[in-house]
Write a structure and sequence with these properties.
With 131 residues, this protein is an alpha/beta fold. The protein contains two helices and eight strands, in the order βαββββαβββ. It has two domains: 59 residues, 2-Layer Sandwich (Signal recognition particle alu RNA binding heterodimer, srp9/1), CATH 3.30.720; 52 residues, 2,3-Dihydroxybiphenyl 1,2-Dioxygenase, domain 1, CATH 3.10.180.10. 18% of the residues lie in helices and 40% in strands. The chain starts with 7 loop residues before the first strand and ends with a strand.
């Protein structure tokens, strides 16, 4: 079986969150589709993001949508991002901590890689590791 797994983040403000990751991790917002294209959608929801595609850190893809429900952060799902270059890992880690929380400092681990955890200002937990 062949499949591709793409994280799909529900957001209180998909544009703002995607812009933060674009700047923090280096990337590009590839496309944005709003509910304006959906027939019968209430006027107050027309500018909400239905589907946003962001590429970050070497071609990884994240999808976003504005949620119609409140967003609650959960420890049950984390995003792990591996870097070949320690400088790039440190930069991404520092950027993701901006406005958020350093949960576990990025430092050398007994298995020989750098590892750290950051909870960004949107409540998403990132596991940054060097490969």
């Amino acid at each position: 079986m062949k499949a591709q797994l793409t994280p799909y983040l529900m957001s209180n403000d998909a544009r703002k969150q995607a812009e933060f990751y674009k700047n923090a991790l280096g990337g590009e917002i590839v496309s944005v589709m709003t509910h304006n294209q959906t027939p019968g959608i209430p006027e107050e929801l027309k500018d909400k993001v239905m589907h946003l595609v962001l590429t970050v850190a070497g071609g990884n893809t994240l999808f976003f949508s504005d949620s119609f429900e409140g967003i609650e952060a959960s420890r049950s799902l984390n995003l792990s991002l591996g870097f070949q270059d320690e400088t790039e890992a440190r930069s991404a880690f520092a950027n993701l901590c901006e406005g958020g929380t350093e949960k576990f400092p990025l430092q050398l681990q007994p298995w020989g890689a750098m590892y750290g955890e950051a909870v960004d200002k949107f409540g998403v937990t990132w596991m940054i590791v060097t490969q």
